[in-house]
Structures are given as C-alpha cells and as structure tokens.
Specification:
By secondary structure, the chain is α/β, with parallel strands linked by helices. It has one domain: Rossmann fold, CATH 3.40.50. The protein is 39% helix and 20% strand. Strands 3-2-1-4-5-7-6 form a 7-stranded mixed beta sheet, sandwiched between helices. The termini are far apart.
C-alpha cells in the first residue's frame, strides 16, 4: 500500500490528526533533523506511514516493533522493522540505536503494561523527547457511548490514572498533556534524566469529612 494512501486514511481519524499536529509542531519548533523514532505497534501501518513521511523529509529513522510480521507492508529506506514483543528488551536493545527522540506506544492497552513499557524505555528517550501513548480516554466506551465497550472503558480509565501517578512522582522531570478526541492520547515530554518510580497518590475521596460534605451539598 502506498504511503500517500495511508496518510489520507490516517488523517480521517481525529486522534491521528492530533498526532500529526503534535509531530509536525515538534519537528518544526525544534527544527529537528536526523532524529530517531521508536514505534511499538504497527497494525495497518497508518501511524508508521505518518512517521515515515516526516523521516523522509528530515533524514530521520523509524524503528517499528510488532508481534505480527509487518515487514512487507511498507518499503522505505528510512524504516526498520523487528518482529517481537515490545517488552522483549534484549531483542529491542540490539535492534535500536539509542537514544531515541520519540517513542510511540500503541500495543497492549492496559495500565500494567503501559507502566511496564514506560519504565523499560524512558531512560533511552533523549531529554526533550516525547513519549506518546495511545488510548487513554474511556469517554467513547462508557455504557451509553457510541463505542460502548466495558473492557476498553475500564482499561483506558486505569491507564489514564496510572499516567497521573507517574507524573505525580516526576513533576520535575516530566511534562504531560492529555487529548480526549476519539480514543485519547497522552504526550509526555522528558525534561530531566531523573525518573522516579511511581507511587499511588494519597486520596481523601472516601474520608468521613468528604462523605459528609457530599451529603450536605
């Protein structure tokens, strides 16, 4: 399939439009050339084709990982593909030339897995780089929503909360933005090398004082 065809298909999806704008702004603002992008999850090659569009213009390189063999979906000089799990660090480490400037995660959409992959690779993301995570919004999936899917609803909500915990433990090292169009998107900018392991945020949601506050409102 031609890249131009994939780009047109990609731009019809709101979340993908947001990625396009983010990547465009990131490249233009920083005048980047010869950077490296690591993509986890290829599927139909839509996001892959978008990244390659920018790689071709900036002499950059894209490294894509997926458990399914997508090596023949696109032919491009700036692209390398590896068939393996995203958490198989031994294989990925041999495949990628570290550090990278962008990491895009679109594989298993559970909070546990997102946290695992984030901490597995965040040290290999260059300071100033972006860690982009797809599927963080549960809004389209609640009981009366247009996509109505209980499994995705709960997993996306849990992923969102987990990313808040990660940010809370790293407010001096990370900047984070959330976008809720379609299935949602989290964009994390690494601003320091010192990344701490996340902890649960203390909550007074179920305190007696808060329960009484709700009863009196």
């Amino acid at each position: 399939m031609k890249i131009t065809h994939l780009i047109k298909k990609y731009e019809k999806v709101s979340t993908h439009k947001k990625i396009k704008k983010l990547i465009t702004d990131f490249f233009v603002k920083n005048k980047l050339k010869k950077i490296k992008i690591l993509e986890f999850g290829v599927d139909k090659g839509i996001s892959t084709s978008l990244f390659l569009k920018f790689c071709n213009k900036t002499k950059s390189k894209l490294f894509s990982i997926d458990i399914i063999d997508y090596s023949k979906i696109i032919k491009n000089y700036d692209w390398k593909f590896l068939q393996c799990r995203d958490d198989d660090f031994k294989k990925v480490n041999k495949f990628v030339n570290w550090p990278v400037d962008i990491i895009f995660l679109d594989t298993e959409h559970t909070a546990k897995h997102v946290k695992k992959i984030f901490y597995m690779y965040i040290d290999y993301l260059r300071v100033g780089g972006l860690f982009i995570i797809d599927d963080i919004s549960w809004i389209p999936y609640h009981k009366k929503a247009w996509r109505n899917n209980e499994w995705i609803e709960n997993n996306n909500r849990e992923t969102f909360k987990k990313l808040i915990e990660i940010y809370n433990s790293n407010q001096d090292s990370l900047e984070i933005s959330f976008y809720f169009e379609d299935s949602g998107l989290a964009v994390i900018k690494k601003i320091s090398k010192k990344i701490k392991f996340s902890k649960k945020i203390p909550s007074r949601e179920f305190s007696l004082k808060n329960i009484l506050r709700k009863l009196t409102n």
